[in-house]
Amino acid sequence: MHITVIGSGYVGTTIAACFADLGHDVTAIDIDEEIVDTLNDGQSPISESGLENLLETHTGNRLEATTSYDAVPESDVTFLAIGTPSNDDGSIDLGALEAAVEATGEAVVDKDERHLVVIKSTVTPPSIETVLKPAVHRGADGNENIEIGMNPEFLREGSAVADFLHPDKLVFGASSEWGMDRLHAVFEPLLEDHDAHIVETDPQTAAMIKYANNAFLASKISLVNDLGNICKEFDLDAYEVMEAIGLDDRISEQFLRSGVGWGGSCFPKDVNAIIAAAREEDYDPAVLEATVEVNDRQPERMLELLADYVELEGARIAVLGLSFKPNTDDIRNSRAIPVIESLRSHGADVVAYDPVAADEMAEKFPNVDYAKTAVDALQDADGTLVVTDWDEFSDLDSEFDEMATPVVIDGRRCVERRDGIVYQGLTW
Ligand SMILES: NC(=O)C1=CN([C@@H]2O[C@H](COP(=O)(O)OP(=O)(O)OC[C@H]3O[C@@H](n4cnc5c(N)ncnc54)[C@H](O)[C@@H]3O)[C@@H](O)[C@H]2O)C=CC1
Ligand SMILES: O=C(O)[C@H]1O[C@H](OP(=O)(O)OP(=O)(O)OC[C@H]2O[C@@H](n3ccc(=O)[nH]c3=O)[C@H](O)[C@@H]2O)[C@H](O)[C@@H](O)[C@@H]1O
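A: This is the predicted complex of the input protein with uridine-5'-diphosphate-glucuronic acid.
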């Protein structure tokens, strides 16, 4: 098949490279010329394991990038992976996606055969009828051959290629048998040697499945953090408790790691978006509001623990880990942001270290001192906050002896408790 993928950001680049790897001819379309040039050089605009290899193999062969929508009408199906960022009230800003959908419609205005336009972006269910369908039909000037489908994406940053190629489930949202068949045809090569559940549904339900998935996972972590905070009050180890409850198949062992909370470009955005969409309907989503509230509290709890041992005003505090999770330089909604803001508001001097995300954070906090190594950050520090669970932090040991006062508050359970340091886990 010939597939056009509009938007070559995180999701778009990953799916374009993977579709090519599955044997499809792919045209990747982005308005950003720099991204297009990077892709056509066989390089990746994002850092993701395995992606560079796929791009090197398929660029100029089964994959090409362009800023033009000309390939859209020649293709069998178009996927849209455009950002849907948050507005100030938590709702999603559909402006960029709406413009891209309309441009897609314009590109197929004269197409005589049916054309499937699949939304990969995360969008609220009502927006398919109220925003996206009108946009495509406006662009296509009422051409009845255009159908909108929904195929939400569940990949994680750091394992995007592997997640895309080995999904637990594929969710196909289509409003006709033809649209459903087309989605099956796209993913047929993937299913040849990989077993995944297929969920066939309408586009709105498919959109809701994506929000429910992320809201559930974020709420699971917040619940684990709430329970973990109670464990801490009782002097109990939340990890021992969670390991036991994870043995129950109904709960599962995954996403039970308590600590400083969830960040990233999606959980915060998506939980807030579904809350805002629910409020639009005059529904008050009490559990999801609590999910956000518990998450917002965790960074402050780290500081409260630290303040039990260190006078924060004028203290030199090391922050280990700046990215929202390990193996990425992405700092969007990283828990390190509220941690640093709070330390500074208490008058502490922050020295931060991250193996890859320091430059990103320096754009946000130019006045923070950024160390080249973890040991440099620990040197003469009055306290340390561990915010991201990078592997290299688990290897730290005698390095803590370099601190002026060896107080370590671990927000991710990645440092070993040892003699000679004051060690406090956030929930253990
Ligand atoms: N990042 C992730 O891990 C995941 C993201 N998602 C969802 O996927 C969607 C896309 O997310 P990302 O890939 O992270 O966004 P992104 O911001 O990394 O990429 C969007 C790309 O679209 C391009 N673009 C904007 N307007 C355009 C237009 N009119 N025509 C062509 N290209 C245009 C931009 O230049 C950019 O390269 C969002 O709705 C997000 O919630 C879903 C699952 C995982
Ligand atoms: O919609 C999205 O964009 C994606 O959002 C998440 O993926 P991602 O944000 O890349 O990262 P996760 O591995 O889910 O971690 C999210 C946050 O939760 C935290 N987390 C995760 C697991 C856990 O047990 N405890 C915990 O605090 C991580 O440290 C991180 O800050 C989902 O896992 C993906 O399925 C989804 O496609």
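The pocket of NAI (ligand 1) is lined by residues 6-12, 29-32, 35, 81-84, 96, 99-100, 103, 120-122, 153, 155, 157, 265-266 (CB under 6 Å). The domain at 232-428 is CATH 3.40.50.720 (Rossmann fold).
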